[in-house]
Automatic annotation (TrEMBL), chain A:
The gene is fldI. Its EC number is 3.-.-.-. Residues 5-251 form the ATPase BadF/BadG/BcrA/BcrD type domain. One of its GO terms (molecular function) is metal ion binding. Its cofactor is [4Fe-4S] cluster. This is R-phenyllactate dehydratase activator. It comes from the Bacteria. Keywords: Hydrolase, Iron, Iron-sulfur, Metal-binding.
Automatic annotation (TrEMBL), chain B:
One of its GO terms (molecular function) is benzoyl-CoA reductase activity. Belongs to the FldB/FldC dehydratase alpha/beta subunit family. The keyword Ribonucleoprotein does not apply. Keywords: Iron, Iron-sulfur, Metal-binding, Oxidoreductase. It comes from candidate division TA06 bacterium ADurb.Bin417. InterPro entries: FldB/FldC_alpha/beta. It is an enzyme of class 1 (oxidoreductase). It comes from the Bacteria. This is Benzoyl-CoA reductase subunit C.
Amino acid sequence: MAIAGLDIGSVATKCVVVDDGRIIGAALVRTGTDTEKAATRALADALQQARLERAVLEKIVSTGYGRRQCGLADRVITEISAAGAGAFRMNGRRPGLVVDIGGQDTKVIEINGEGSVSDFLMNDKCAAGTGRFLELMAQVLETDMEGFSQLARSAEAPRRLNATCSVFAESEVVSLIAHGESKTNIAAGLFEAVASRVAAMLRQFQEQPVFFCGGGARSPALRLALERLAGRPVQVLDPPQFVVAFGAAMLPDGV
Amino acid sequence: MKKHQDQGGLKPEYASILDGFYRGLAPSGLSPDYRAETEVYRRRSRLASAGRLYESLMSASGVAAGPRVGYFCNLVPEELIRACGAVPVRLCELDHACARLGEEVLPGDACPMIKSICGSAAAGRYRDLDLLVIPAACDGKAKLSELLAPVRPVYLLDLPRSSEYLRNADAWTGRYQDFFDFLKERFRSRAGRSELTAECRRANLRTQLFRRLYHFRAGHPGLINHFDYFTLVSLSFRLEPEAWLDLAGEILAEAVGRAEGLKFDGRRILLAGSPIIFPAYKVLDILYEFNCEAVADSLCSGYGHLYDPVEIDEETETGIIRALALKYLAASLCPCFMGLNKLLDLLVDTTAEYRLDGVIYHDLRLCQVFDMQTVAIRQVLKEKRIPFLSIKTDLGREDTGQLKTRIEAFLEMLG
C-alpha cells in the first residue's frame, strides 16, 4: 500500500507518494503562512500525479519544521531522521554524511551501515549559510537561483566576503558592486562563503562519502564550491528536494 | 582596609552619575512575578511535598536575619560569610525581563546572566543588601564589580584562573583569607577557627543530603523530576542550610517511600554547559515534553553548587580556609578556569556509572567560553561513543521550535 511523506519546510512543502519503495507521485508548493493549506495542496498534487485517491493511502508521515502544525499526519518524525533514512535509500544503502541545505537550516547528518542516524550537526539560529541566505543574495544580484549559480560558474576569481550576517552581507555586496567588482566574482564568493561553513561542519566528522540534498543541492555552483572546500566528491541525491519527504515515507515504524 | 573597598569601586563622583542613570531606567522598579511558572512546575511534580518546595520560591521564610551579603558565582565561600554573622545570598539569575533592561546598560551580545544581573541592579533589586561580592571569575563579572559599585559597596574577589591546585592553593588561600579579614572588620566579627568549623559542618550536612538525592535521581528517574531538582538547588542560593535540609529531606523521604516498582520508559541524560536557574527552564521544558530526564549534570547551578564537601586536614583557621579554597576552586568546572580535564572525566565517568543515554550541552549563547569547549567535548565523547548534542540558546522563547527539532532528533537517534 502507498504511503505519503510530507516535508513541511520553512520555504517549501514537499510531498511524495511512495509505493513499494518507489516514488510514484511528487509535488512541491510554497509553504507560505498557512501550513495546513500548503500540506493539503502538496498532498493532493502528489496523489493526482500518482493517480491515487487519498483513501487508499496506508498512512501519512509528516516531517520538517511544520511537522506538528499539520492535522493530516498519522505519524510525525524529525527531518533529521527522515533525511538520514531518505538519503540511505537513495544512495544505494551506503553509510556516509548527508548535507541538507534547506530554507532556514543547514545540517550534516551521519548515517551508519544500517541507515540509522549516528550523529548530526545543525547551524545555529542565524540564517547565514542557509538556502534563505542564498535566495536573498540572488535578489541583491538581481537574478534568480539558477542565474545566480550560472553567474558563479563564470567567475574568474571568487571575491571573498567578510560579513557573516545576512543583513551585513547584503550591504557588503551592494558596496562591492558599487566599487566595480564583477557580479560573477561576487556570486562565486557568496557560494564559497556558504560552502566553507558546511565544509567546517563536515570536518567535525571522520572522512566518509558525502551526499547532498535539500533545495541548496539544486545549485551546481554550490556543489562545486563544496567539493573544492571539503576536498572530496559530493554526490547530489536525486531529486534533492524530495529526499526528506521520501525518507519520512520510507521509515519503518518506531524510528 | 580601604584597599579592599577600592578594589571594585568607582570614585564617588562617577558612581553618583551612573547611579542617577540607573534610577532613570526603571523608576518604578522591576519585580518579576513568577507565580504562573511556579504553578506550572508544581503541577508537573509527582510529589506532594513539592507544594512546599514551589511555595518557598515565593516566600521569604527560611532566610536568616542579619546583614545580607549578595554574591555572584559559586566561587564565593558562603562559610566565610556565615561565620561572620552575615547572611549569604547567591544572586546568579537568568531573568528575561531583567536581561532586557540590562541591555540598556550593556551591549546586547553580552552574557545573558551578566545582563540579567545588571538589569536587576539598575532596577533597584539589590538596594537592601549590605554588600555585593563579585569574584573576577570571568571578564563579565570583573566588569560588573565597577558597574554595580554605584548600587552597593562591592568587594572584588580576584582569583587566579587556573585549577592546578598544587600551584595555586596558596594564592587562593591568601585571597580567601583577605576576604575573611575584610568581612570580620566590616561586620565587627571576631570569628575564627570554631565559627569556621561550625559553618563547614553545616555546609557539609547539606552536601551529604544532596549527594543522596543526586544518586537517588539517577536510579529513579522522574520521581524527583529535573524541575524539582533545579528548583531545590536554586533555593539553596538563599535558604539557611537547615531550612534547605528540611525541604530537601522531605522531598527525598517522600520519593524514597514511593520508589518501589516505579517504571520510567523515557531517556536519561546528563546536562552539561551553562547554568540553569529558575525560571529559565526552557530546555528542561522541552526535555520533559519528550519524556527525557536530566538526571545528572555538571552545572554550577546544580551539581557544581552542592556536590563537593569541605575536607579539613588541619583544624587551624588557615587550614580551614585552605580546605575551602580546594572545595570551591579546585573542584570548579567553570570553563573560565582551566578545568576541561575534570569536566571530560566527569562526563565520561558519570555517563558510564549511571548508564546514561547521552550528554546534552547547554550553551547559553554569548557566554563564549562555554562555546569554546564544545568542539573538544564533542570530539572526545564521539571517540568514547557517548551520544552528544550541543544546543545554543538564550533566555528568549522564540527558538523553542528549533530546539525541539534538535532534541527530538537526538532522542530519535538514540532509538
